[in-house]
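ARCHIVE CARD
SHELF: 3
SLOT: left
DATA:
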Amino acid sequence: MTLPPPEALAALAIVIFFAIGLHEYAHCKMADLAGDPTPGIQGRVTLNLTKHFTMMGTIMIILTSLSGIGMGWGKPSPCDPRKMRNPRWDFFATIAAGPLCNVLQAAVYAVLLRLCLQGAPQLLDSLFVRFLLVQGVIINLALFFFNMIPFGPLDGHWLLGVFMPDKQRYYWYRFNHQVGTIGLFAVIVGLDLVRQQGGPDVLWTVIGTPLAASYHLFTGTPFPL
């Protein structure tokens, strides 16, 4: 893997820092607003974004971002639905807040990119600026779609569980807790090996196809393959 120039790496680091940090902050803030004191007690209702990172998820998003699609996760947000005013739907809103925060960030980067393209294209001659805006859209949209996968530690499995009856939800959450990160890594590595052997690129189908379409919708420009 060839590393991009230092200014591109700096832009990538900024995008990842805010993409993951604000995602996890949104979870914690929504839980706090719903009456759950758990994230506040653990010091997670904070815009000190360094509090919201986990080693494995950060490594994952760095490696996949260098490969073209950013997939990863932050430090799990501590929340207890039983302490929320409306446990089921407040919990749903708490989980949904993270991915939606990434969509909002993507929209901000996309607006800035459109403004540059229409009014000040010379700004995009700077590799740092161009990489910041383009990867800001790509990584945040990729995090949204990736986190919607209902498996392992990802937000999608919590959102799906909300709609299950109590007994099935209990077993569903327990299964994902037990399989968790290890299972997710195994699936990703397995699918990548299949791709390297000439098989279908399942990850691109699941993440890349809606990502490319959304990027075009947000920026009005083709996805940079």
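SLOT: right
DATA:
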Amino acid sequence: MRYRKARGPPGTAGNERYPAIDMRAAYRTSDGHWWHTLTDVEVAVVVVQVVLGIWLRHVLLSVALGVGCAVVGLRRTVACTAVVAAGLGILLSNAAWRGVVPDRLGPFVGSACLISDPASKQGALVVVFEIDGERFESWARGSPRRRIEPHLAGECATLRGTRRALTGVALRRAAIRHIVGGLTIESVGDWTDGSRFDRASNRVRRLFADGSAELRTPDDALFAGLVIGDDRNEPDAMIDEFRRSGLSHLTAVSGQNVAYVLAAAAPLLRRLRSWLRWTATLAVIGWFVALTRFEPSVLRAGVMAGIAATGFVLGREKPPGRVLALAVGVLVLADPLLVWSVGFWLSVFATAGVALLSGRLAALVPGPDWLAMPMGVTLAAQVGVAPVSLLVFGSLPLVSLPANLLAVPVAGAVMLYGLPAGLIAGALHGDGLAGSLATLIQTPSALGTRWVATVAALAARLEPPGAVAAIGWLLVVLAIAAVAARRFTVSRRAPVCEGVG
């Protein structure tokens, strides 16, 4: 593509009134960095190329994608960047898959550290240990289970056991989580507390667990899931209700949780100078991401918050769609195996739907703003997750619309209030007056959590059969399209008033 200098009206050359414009200069910023000139769509295209390169892992793909970018008319810079991005994705993906092949199997005696918090499943305790830099998953029962159960991620023990290879579907599922094999545990010896950072994080989680115990079972497990994403102790029936009602996203830590943590820290952060405030903001985000165990959804939210904070301090604030694309690019380059994480893509697509469609859909919803905006956000999130939900789970609950409208505001209040309340109640947990005060502090959390659980249970029971749900979604789409068409027709018929000079 050649760039021509823009000229004034016919018969004139570039002059003071119609200055000549060098389009190459127009694509450069004052600091000369071309990547600052990429549009939001072009950034998204480059990130998609990285994801496709990681997913498909074929060498010829990078060239084909670059040619495709050139054919559809994207700038040469974008096409070249797409080729490099796809090639980089292919290299990183191949390296990541080579990294999940175990170096050594067989008997083991030595120190192993917990990578995840132990979780009960099918009568066993599922844990992941790191041994010599490799991750092995174990389903512990009997004496090993009792020895492991009280401990948390980061703590290390002396183990005796056998490392074995995984096969079939279990191999693929484990590899996505960087697990290279299985571990049969024969005995568990003494424990150590891990690094200073792990000790601090586990101290907070145990304190919060004590505060959660002030709620009745199973609301205590749901409360932990709402606030810090710890859903290990939720009963299977509750998990099923939240899935069938379209509310399972509430127990996965997301941008809403990160936003509430930053809002709680805002009074202190505002007192700092810009660069110190930026450093402290990143530290708060990192602390919360570590506290919630680096789940894919919170990683996405944390990286987005970090990019937004960095853009603010640099004076280069970007729209949410661009920030989301950059966050996805950073995360899949850092961990290519995230491309196969369903939870990661549910979080990404829901955020994309809210960022790109919530305002437009809210404008189409009749009624007051207090109803139109939540409805628009709920519809946008459902539109975003629809492709992943239909492909993976084969359904998209119709009751998710009213259920989210009823549950999300209350769940948000629980998230905002629950973290400080849970920690304070945990410090007071016990018998006597302190225990009574802890119960009183947690009363709002208990009421909010019970409301969310009740909405999920009722919505799961009211979810219609698949065919009826499909008809319901079709009616929702037709209603939105009818309102949009009507408003478009009215806007075209509206008279145009010109000012009189």
